[in-house]
Design goal:
GO terms for molecular function: NADPH binding; oxidoreductase activity, acting on NAD(P)H. By secondary structure, the protein is an alpha/beta fold. The protein is built from 10 helices and 16 strands.
Length: 331
Amino acid sequence: MKKVISFNKIGGPEVLEFQDIEEPKELKADEVLYEVKAFALNRSDWLLSAGLHYTIPNLPSRIGSEASGVVKALGSSVTKFKIGDKVSSIPFFTTEYLVHGEIAVTPEKYLVHCPENLNFIESTSIWMQYMTAYYPFVKIAKIKKNDVVLIGAASSSASLAAIDIVKSLNGLVIAATRSEKKIDKLKEYGADEVINTQTENLSDRINNITNEQGIRAVYDPIGNPFYQQYLDVLQSNSLVFHFGLLSGESIKIDISRHVRTNSYLLPYSLFNYIREENSINEGIEYIKENISKNIFKPKINKVFSFGESIKAYEYLMEYDVFGKIVVEIKN
């Protein structure tokens, strides 16, 4: 028997539990079974168990979208991997292939070889955040030199990766945070300017920083009231990528203010951009290249043991998390 993390009712970390399951004896043609060595936590995992994610869980349900480990068995049509390979999962839209536990099964399409210069803990800490930031800035907005991008909740793993992506395109980053003590660290991680939204007027500071030229794009995992604070400093043809509700308050779209600035709001999800193989492979190659050059690096906040998995999810809910939370499994 193998232990996995699962939930039988909707709720927060308190509904999570260890469950014993049988190791699969048969795989579908495109499936890969692997022994998990580490898995990473994302707020979207918690939203799934809380019933707040656009993916609706089928109860009882496993949890988790990112894991790394060693291949144990292959479906009949799998060609990219062999038994013993070190692999990591790419998060995608699914209620079936959830991965937090001692074993996981993932379709070949959503599995990659671990980068040679990263260990299991690091390898499971890159794909959700870097892939999420890749499509808005590289493929959609096509950020270029000196374009100014506002990144909300800047100390989250998703936003830290966004800083790296924008800087790789020679853009300029304004990072927003509610914590004075995070400012120096965000600058160390590449932000050109940091605004404390608790003590400073966001739009006034942006006008000051940009000489009233405004911002080219916004990476918004927060919702209101953050959304309302930057609407008047958007450039013409600017893009707002809205992909989260950290505030717990949905955006009420202000059509008039978008019309005045000729700006656009895109309800964004990584999952909509990795359905096609060509699209997912473009993202993977861009990230792997920058990982291999040490331009992109995992930013890990804390590592828990497998027995502390529920505690890791409780820690995920804390305000001061800066980077990725990982659980290591020492089989």
